[in-house]
Amino acid sequence: MKGSTNHTSSPLTAFKRAPSLGLSQWENGNLTTNLAEKKATNGAFFLVEATLAPGTEPPPDVHTREDERFYVLEGEFDAYVGDEAFKVEAGECVFLPRFDNLLCVGADDRNGERSFSYGMSNLAANDSR
Q: Could you read off the pLDDT of 13-45 as tens digits, one per residue?
């Protein structure tokens, strides 16, 4: 049969989510909403929407198993990845490959809060996200 493929069913279930109180929590003065969690994507990725208050950025870190991406919804920030620096503004995306040192800081704390969606892919088995 021309174009025949052997389809197997996926153990995953399609879903749609939007920010809501039930999916949100406050962490270190920042509001985060888990839109797609590791368990819902079979470890393929997770997606978080976050609103950060000025000065509450996470410390520098290195991910050895996961790639990261940020899409800025509001505000702006600077991302330092290895030897590169990116000013990322609303409507822009930055991709951060694993093994690079990462530091994200508010580009201008006078701008107030920054909102972004954040995702990681290829999650490790022992990652709790």
A: 888 888 888 889 998 888 888 888 888 888 888
**Residue 9: both structure tokens together:** 């069913």
How many domains is the chain built from?
1
In a domain, 101, yes or no: yes
Across 9-44, b (16+ Cβ under 10 Å) vs e yields: eeeeeeeeeeeeeeeeeeeeebbbbbbbbbebbebe
Q: pTM of the prediction?
A: 0.72
57-66, 68-77, 101-110: the lowest-pLDDT one = 101-110
Residue 19 CA: distances (Å) to CA of 2, 22, 36, 47, 123 = 44, 8, 11, 11, 22
User: Does residue 116 fall inside a structural domain?
Assistant: yes
**Which amino acid makes up residue 55?**
G
Question: Does residue 105 lie within any of the structural domains?
Answer: yes
